[in-house]
Write a structure and sequence with these properties.
Helix content: 10-25%
Largest sheet: 8 strands, antiparallel
Radius of gyration: 22 Å
Number of strands: 16
Low-confidence stretches: 125-135
Strand content: 25-35%
Structural class: alpha+beta
Number of helices: 4
């Protein structure tokens, strides 16, 4: 009896240790997030719980889906907060050094129409009558009337890459002012600038109902948390459980 009791206690201790070890390993490499909006429909839906692999040395790739920090503004400072409410999930559509253009909802990168991206996008996936953004340039990065850009007519914009030098004109100063401000540099008295970081351009698959890089600009690599890999399960108020979405791979 005493021997069995000892084995039972030992087995329980081993199971507890295994649970702790697995939990530590999981938390080192993965996170779970909840999708709160339809901006990534039809790929992701409101109510999805997604598994995100934390970014380490992996290269960020076009058309993969990532969780990243939203830029925050305070006085003359731009930073990326760790607040859970400041996290976005979108698809990467532009890499460092790319020239990106959105023309009549068609994505063109480096003068090449991106057919692969076209299969992901969804138009007008939002409640009837809801108008998130008008054709008002102040809604769109860089938030100036010199750039008459909109949700479906945006760019061209060169996405900054580390070491790239850009010569400033009136438009380019406006276009990259926020990025230089984030890099803690003053561009007012300079004719050119060399970027210190790589940046990425993100958009939601639901172009009509997505706040993304069209509105807040390119995102530095350091603000990317990780890649969304799977939908673990889905649960929302109107649709309590989606069986078809259990452990669904995110395309």
């Amino acid at each position: 009896m005493k021997l069995n009791l000892k084995f039972n206690i030992l087995g329980g201790v081993i199971l507890c240790l295994l649970f702790v070890i697995v939990n530590i390993i999981f938390n080192l490499f993965y996170d779970i997030y909840y999708v709160k909006s339809p901006s990534m429909c039809p790929t992701l839906r409101t109510g999805d719980f997604i598994l995100v692999k934390k970014k380490s040395q992996e290269k960020v790739e076009s058309y993969n889906v990532y969780v990243f920090k939203l830029p925050c503004y305070k006085s003359n400072e731009i930073f990326f907060a760790d607040d859970i409410n400041s996290l976005f999930i979108k698809r990467c559509v532009g890499l460092p050094g790319d020239t990106l253009l959105l023309y009549k909802d068609k994505l063109i990168v480096n003068d090449i129409f991106q057919e692969e991206y076209a299969k992901f996008i969804k138009m007008n996936e939002h409640p009837v009558g809801l108008n998130i953004y008008d054709l008002n340039s102040h809604y769109y990065y860089p938030h100036d009337t010199l750039f008459l850009w909109s949700s479906f007519e945006y760019g061209p914009i060169i996405i900054p890459n580390k070491g790239r030098t850009i010569v400033f004109g009136k438009k380019s100063k406006l276009l990259y002012n926020d990025i230089v401000l984030y890099e803690k540099r003053d561009l007012l008295n300079n004719d050119s600038y060399r970027f210190r970081n790589d940046y990425y351009f993100f958009m939601g698959d639901n172009l009509s109902f997505s706040t993304d890089s069209r509105h807040f600009g390119p995102i530095p690599e350091s603000a990317i948390i990780g890649e969304a890999k799977f939908v673990l399960f889905s649960w929302s108020k109107n649709n309590p459980f989606f069986i078809s979405r259990i452990f669904k791979k995110i395309q």
